[in-house]
Amino acid sequence: MTDPDISKDTENDEPFLRKVFYIFSFNIRLILKNISSRKRSTLIVILGLIFSLSVLYTSSIWTHTSEKIIADDYIETLDYEMYITSFLTHSMDEVYTYVSQDQVVEQVDWIYPSVALFNFDDKNDTYRWYPEEAQENMTNPLSLSAGFVVSSRSLNRIKLNLDIEGRSEVNSGEILISYTQAKQLESIFNETIAPGYKIDVAITRRIPNTDDGQIYMFHYDIDETKFYNYTVAGIYKYVGHNTVIDRLLGGGTSGSGGIIVDSIFFPIEDLTSLDLFIMDGWGILPRLLVKTDPQQLRIDGITSMPDNLLALRERIEIRFFHSFCYILSQEIQTMTEEYRRSFASTTLFIPTIATAIVLTILSSHMTVRRRREEIAFLRSKGAVSSQIIGIFFGEFLFISVISLVISIGTGILLAATIPSVGHGSVFNTSLFVRYLNELEMSFYDIEIFTVLILGIYLGWTLLNVITFVRRDIQESLLVTRKGQQLLTMGLKIAAFALTIAGFIFLLLDYLKLEQESFTFNLTLITASSNSLYLFIGVIFFTCYFVSLGINYLLKKSEVILSSIFKRSKFFIIKNIRRYRKSFTDTTFFLILIICLLTSFLTIRSSTIRNNILEGEYREGADLRIDAVVPVNITDFENSLSSIEGINESIGFYTAKATVGFQDVEVFGIDPLKYLRIGKWLDNSFVGMTAEEGLTALANEEEGVILSDFVVDRLEFSLNQILSITAFRGGPFYVDFRLTSIISSAPGLGVAHGHDPKMNRITNEWALINENYFLQMIEQRNSTLFLASVEENADVEQIIEQIKEINPLVVINPTFINPDYIGYFLVNYIPPVAVSLLLGAIFLNVIGVVYIIISTDFILEQRRRENAVMLALGGKQRDIRKMIISELSIFMITTVIIGFILGLILTTVLLVFIKPLIISREVVSLSIFIDVVPFIIMFITLFAAAMIGLIPILRKQMKHEIINELRAIV
Known about the structure:
Layout: H1 4-37, H2 39-77, E1 82-86, H3 92-100, E2 105-118, E3 143-150, H4 152-158, E4 162-166, E5 174-178, H5 179-189, E6 198-203, E7 226-238, H6 244-249, E8 263-267, H7 273-281, E9 287-292, H8 294-297, H9 305-319, E10 323-327, H10 329-344, H11 350-370, H12 372-380, H13 385-421, H14 429-437, H15 443-469, H16 471-476, H17 481-516, H18 522-555, H19 558-564, H20 569-577, H21 584-619, E11 623-632, H22 633-641, E12 646-651, E13 653-659, E14 662-669, H23 671-677, H24 690-699, E15 703-707, H25 708-714, E16 721-725, E17 733-742, E18 744-745, E19 749-750, E20 765-769, H26 770-776, E21 781-789, H27 795-805, E22 809-811, H28 821-825, H29 832-861, H30 863-871, H31 876-912, H32 914-917, H33 931-958, H34 961-968
Parallel strand pairs: 3-8, 5-7, 14-20, 15-17
Antiparallel strand pairs: 1-9, 1-10, 2-3, 2-6, 2-9, 4-7, 5-8, 6-7, 11-21, 11-22, 12-21, 13-14, 13-16, 15-20, 16-17, 18-19
Helix pairs in contact: 1-13, 2-11, 2-13, 2-15, 9-10, 10-18, 11-15, 11-21, 11-29, 13-14, 13-15, 17-18, 18-21, 18-31, 19-20, 20-31, 21-29, 21-31, 21-33, 23-24, 29-33, 30-34, 31-33
């Protein structure tokens, strides 16, 4: 039996549910119909959202993925990150076991620095080999070379620093020999030494001490370690720089005498345990080469890698107090700083993103304004405000879902595409696939960006809808339209004032940090980024208030407009003065676009020019000659001077010393010759020109030029007598007179701080007279020479002649330090110039899109007025001419004002964005304008706007006049 009450409730619920379903389905159909009937408006909004979201998603995904890939790849380009030595050699086995088990360590390898002997068979035990250049029998000399005993596994890593002719793998019965050693053997055996050559070699189990008279063959103890018919697997030239091997064994530039340049690599597997034990007993100290695991090293983020490496060293040295660990801390630190700078420079793209968001807001605003009649119609049919708002909210959800799905997919593809095409015309498929396979995505970033963009879009849309829905209520209130405008303007002025105040505060903080620092460190990079964020707001507000001023002036320029447009002046002036249906609404956005375009292109051209000037300055002169092996300065200068086309040359005498507690590298130079040869800059010296500074040094034999950092820190003053102590290979204590203060010098780079582009090991250098240098120190060799060439000389031919004199030289290298991490990062992060160019292109596209949609919206509102003009005898060509003339006024005005405003704002930008675009200000970064990109961008913007206007005008003219007149009636 059915309960009548239950039956009654069921009957009541069914109509209610049906009613809810009907309302829901009706609203869905209405939403879809509205979207379908307004395809173009909907598409514009969707494209704006996709652009904004996808760029933000791309930035996040690209950043996280690149962080992982960059860290892994950079660590893989290093041979090792650490080497370990100990004076308690018997404990090295225990150190090896401990280090191998550390979670940060990937592999540990042994290396024994020994000596290799060639042409030893006919030498008896008492054969006198020392000095090598004057040994017992120079007609049949013994040939000595550094012999590095290594495992085949470690050689696979060491070979990263070698340019090898032949095979790099060394099996039992094979060796690798250096180019220098091969040439020495050729002169001894009078035979060509090439890969595959058979040779006899001996590895010493001890290294004699010549100071104790150990100058005979038997002191080497090679009886048990003579090896016959060994194959030369390969001949190598050393090309490494930022490596542990360079620091441990020397590459010819680190003060080690170029040991690795004259050397061989011998397989440790061919020595017995007894041999290694005897070598250990005789004092040949074994070293451990440590390779870290990049995944463990960056486990806390790429910026934590230097700290993790230092922590590893600390663990080892605490556990083994007798050990010494050398690490590539400076190289890893440089990597993290350059990584931060490279990605911080992408913040320059933020104005483009913000402009895209503004485009979305303005396009949605136009869409809602176009639908005022629809809102009024719904109100007349009894729809309440919540229903109307619900329809717009439903459309928002539909558009947001589509935009969100497409944006995530686009962000992933762009994140993989940017590094794949950013630096070459060929698409790098393998890098693209790698990015997709190793994709790193921060869901926190995705959520924040989604809420930010969609929240702005929803909030602005609903605000406009509510405004139109409640307009009748507003008009009944005492608050007039003028009152609302004053209130809104007051809020905008207050926001502008707060933005400027915040920016000034951050700018002052940045300037304070800059004065306290001689380098663009991570702190300055962060301060620069923070200042940029607020300055973007300053740019937007400034462009807005300037646009109000332009609109006001245009409305007051009746005399000027009348003289330009005589026949159509009445209509043009009337349209400009209108509150609505006027192009005055486009002024703000056009000025913003032109202003940002000007800033982007100016910063780009200034950066490119600065890089070119810096490159020439670092090269130092017309010719920069880096010798792989130190050569006699006088002899090599004479050889260079004998080459036709070379004016002068200069070699740099060098020695290590100390100023106060600061280690410095002292260069002996001929000041006036250096002045003539070097490409000096106005800012090379502090408070004087290069001519004044070097002339003062030339006039003071015991003069010295020091860096501004040392002078400031030690409170020196010009002409003050100061002491330089602990000259390596010279006197302990020497007095000098400070003749001038220097910031940088051509060919030497900056005078203070680590300069990774120059690969300087010391952080400071000083200049003194070469004659005084030679009186103190018996040093006659150098690896660096500069030369000037005659005008119209054949530089390529000169270079070939120099290489004939000495094949072991590098002339005008593309990169003075090819291992500089900045050159590595550009494989994954486009340079600043590329990012700015992409930003300018996007801004140009955004500007064209906005002009088209705003023009379409404005002319749509004037459709009935145009119909009346046609009905009164007006011609279509006159209306077209009037509209084009009116739009041209705003385009030309905004281009001129926007360009001037952009230059002014760029001047302010260059005050604090230097850390984001250059690593050090070796050359003063100043504004440089390349006219060609400006002309291309502005013509493209103007032409595209005019071409886009054609279909809009044609559509406007197709409407039948009678229908428009009926709508008016």
